[in-house]
């Protein structure tokens, strides 16, 4: 049975304790590496037995950790059981709330070996392994986001999550002392996992009810009125019951149109909150402004239901880049409409999707919320936070987007720094005249023989390399590892910022001074950005083509100059998105003596230096003009009369 179980490339990497790129390198370099059982290059799968045998022969098979050991044992002995149910049984057993009779002796033995202080961590790692395998990141609420939402809900005794997914919100509420926890989830496998996780986190005397079903169509908790209702519902899911639920007591503020499922979820949550109870829900930013939801938003504002709308930074969620808001509502106790808190935490935008600085974001959200909860108002910080009276929203659009109502931040312009920047720009502009070389008409275009770079590679005059496997990289502050040159760095002209996790990436080629590097993907007119490396030490990263020349046969600047020419752009194809994909091996260059190459290479190098200087002056000039404009418009600077 174990020989027939399949593993992905990522799981092969785990077996050997290396990065995914190392597996790609092995497949490319070792003809005896096991062949995939399918034809998918995007996610190939291999027979576990064959892979383990190959790794063992190569001395690369690492001792499996507890997660890997338990996962393997589950796969081998699962039979017809759903993996989600088995993982749920494991979580229950690790937390002492299950007998694990369904798991088999081998799994129970492995679990019994886990020290008590490591059981909770193992349970969570197995839970996340399951979702990694099932590619359902959208149903896993980040623990930090779940904690933030529960903190906004206060200290409720009873909590309902009508779209509980993997149970993150209820688990966080249980850990903070909630005693009555209820959840509903459309997927039965997810329901099992959520129930196990919540029961594991709850106090023994707490009541946990997590059931499967469609909350909007078949509400399992019709009579429940909770202290707090928290929800991270599916985004944009239009099959929410529009055709079947036209007459329903939950639509107290209006019947949502078909493309406004989130307004159905908001009203469902309000229906289940006790009088004065709290609702905290995550929603796409468009819910605050789309005209199709105007009537419902207007009714909520008039009734005093909306307490706060909090804009999270774009990229907060790992599975999507769309901007999102946290809505905080209060089930009505009367008809009074009070001020609404607006917070825009967009300044906390992460460097890449899902890598939020949750500590900073939490402070940016919770401090104004706590002040508002205590006093009903907050200090107005332009572009950041303010309270707005309901009448301020009751216009034609009823747009609750925080950025629309917050005062614009005052432009900070320092006259001394502007003057310093102006002098640097003047110096850069003064250096430009005379940098372009003088030329004369040659009388005719090239008539000499030419060769493709691919032919130069085959002749040994040029070495060609690309990084084809995945490179594990990070740009977190303080991260170790050497800097990696990526195709994005070349295309945008920015300094490398990503560092390699070399321990889990495998061998990466180090760039040398004199190497020519070209991005694989080129936007705009397709003209490549070929550069000659000036320092040794950077690592070859993704989407970069490396050409290492024999300096006695090929001049690097001569080669880079021809790659930057318009004719090189014709050597590539255009992708479906309109981006040019360049294969440098198809580019033709004239066959010249090395002395002539060096003479032309010197000119190409001078032109590239001129281009950089001109671009620097242009970019700084535009930035400086805008800063002057903002300063004059704000009145913080004025023209010097001298």
UniProtKB/TrEMBL annotation:
GO biological-process terms attached to the record: DNA restriction-modification system; methylation
UniProtKB keywords: DNA-binding, Methyltransferase, Restriction system, Transferase
DNA-binding found in the keyword field: yes
Organism: Haloechinothrix aidingensis
Designated name of the protein: N-6 DNA methylase
GO molecular function: DNA binding; N-methyltransferase activity
Pfam families: N6_Mtase (PF02384)
CDD domains, sorted: AdoMet_MTases
SUPFAM superfamilies linked: S-adenosyl-L-methionine-dependent methyltransferases (SSF53335)
Entries under PANTHER family matching the protein: TYPE I RESTRICTION ENZYME HINDI METHYLASE SUBUNIT, TYPE I RESTRICTION ENZYME HINDVIIP M PROTEIN-RELATED
Statement: the UniProt record of this protein carries the keyword Methyltransferase: yes
């Amino acid at each position: 049975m174990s020989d027939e179980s399949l593993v992905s490339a990522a799981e092969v990497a785990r077996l050997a304790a290396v990065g995914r790129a190392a597996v790609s390198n092995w497949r490319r370099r070792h003809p005896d590496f096991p062949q995939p059982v399918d034809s998918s290059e995007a996610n190939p799968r291999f027979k576990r037995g064959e892979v383990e045998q190959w790794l063992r022969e190569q001395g690369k098979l690492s001792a499996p950790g507890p997660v890997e050991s338990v996962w393997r044992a589950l796969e081998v002995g699962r039979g017809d059981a759903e993996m989600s149910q088995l993982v749920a049984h494991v979580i229950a057993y690790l937390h002492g709330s299950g007998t694990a009779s369904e798991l088999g002796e081998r799994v129970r033995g492995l679990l019994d070996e886990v020290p008590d202080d490591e059981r909770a961590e193992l349970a969570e790692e197995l839970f996340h392994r399951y979702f990694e395998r099932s590619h359902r990141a959208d149903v896993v609420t980040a623990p930090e986001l779940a904690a933030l939402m529960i903190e906004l809900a206060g200290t409720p005794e009873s909590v309902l999550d009508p779209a509980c997914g993997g149970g993150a919100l209820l688990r966080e509420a249980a850990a903070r002392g909630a005693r009555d926890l209820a959840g509903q989830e459309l997927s039965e496998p997810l329901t099992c996992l959520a129930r196990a996780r919540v029961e594991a986190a709850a106090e023994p005397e707490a009541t946990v009810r997590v059931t499967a079903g469609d909350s909007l169509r078949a509400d399992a908790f019709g009579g429940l009125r909770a202290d707090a209702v928290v929800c991270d519902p599916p985004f944009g899911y239009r099959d929410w019951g529009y055709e079947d639920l036209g007459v329903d007591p939950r639509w107290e503020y209006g019947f949502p149109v078909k493309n406004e499922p989130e307004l159905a979820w908001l009203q469902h949550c309000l229906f289940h909150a006790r009088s004065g109870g709290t609702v905290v829900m995550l929603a796409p930013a468009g819910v605050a402004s789309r005209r199709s939801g105007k009537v419902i938003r207007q009714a909520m504002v008039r009734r005093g239901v909306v307490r706060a709308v909090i804009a999270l930074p774009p990229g907060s969620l790992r599975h999507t880049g769309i901007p999102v808001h946290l809505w905080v509502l209060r089930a009505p106790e009367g008809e009074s409409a009070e001020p609404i808190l607006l917070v825009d935490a967009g300044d906390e935008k992460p460097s890449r999707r899902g890598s939020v600085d949750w500590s900073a974001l939490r402070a940016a959200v919770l401090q104004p919320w706590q002040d508002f909860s205590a006093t009903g108002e907050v200090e107005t910080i332009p572009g950041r936070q303010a309270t707005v009276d309901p009448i301020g929203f009751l216009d034609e659009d009823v747009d609750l987007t925080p950025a629309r109502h917050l005062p614009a931040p005052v432009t900070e312009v320092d006259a001394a720094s502007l003057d310093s920047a102006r002098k640097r720009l003047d110096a850069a502009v003064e250096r430009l005249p005379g940098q372009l070389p003088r030329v004369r008409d040659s009388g005719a275009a090239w008539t000499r023989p030419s060769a493709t770079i691919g032919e130069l590679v085959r002749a040994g005059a040029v070495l060609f390399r690309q990084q084809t496997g995945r490179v594990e990289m990070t740009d977190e502050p303080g991260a170790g590892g050497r800097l990696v040159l990526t195709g994005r760095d070349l295309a945008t002209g920015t300094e490398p910022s990503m560092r390699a996790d070399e321990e889990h990436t495998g061998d990466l080629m180090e760039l040398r001074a004199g190497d020519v590097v070209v991005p694989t993907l080129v936007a705009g007119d397709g003209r490549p950005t070929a550069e000659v490396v000036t320092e040794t030490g950077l690592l070859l990263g993704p989407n970069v083509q490396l050409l290492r020349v024999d300096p006695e046969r090929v001049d690097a600047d001569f080669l880079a100059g021809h790659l930057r020419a318009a004719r090189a752009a014709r050597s590539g194809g255009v992708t479906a998105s309109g981006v040019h994909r360049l294969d440098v091996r198809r580019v033709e260059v004239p066959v010249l003596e090395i002395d002539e190459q060096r003479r032309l290479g010197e000119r190409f190098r001078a032109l590239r230096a001129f281009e950089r200087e001109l671009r620097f002056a242009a970019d700084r000039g535009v930035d400086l003009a805008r800063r002057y404009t903002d300063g004059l418009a704000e009145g913080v600077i004025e023209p010097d009369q001298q």
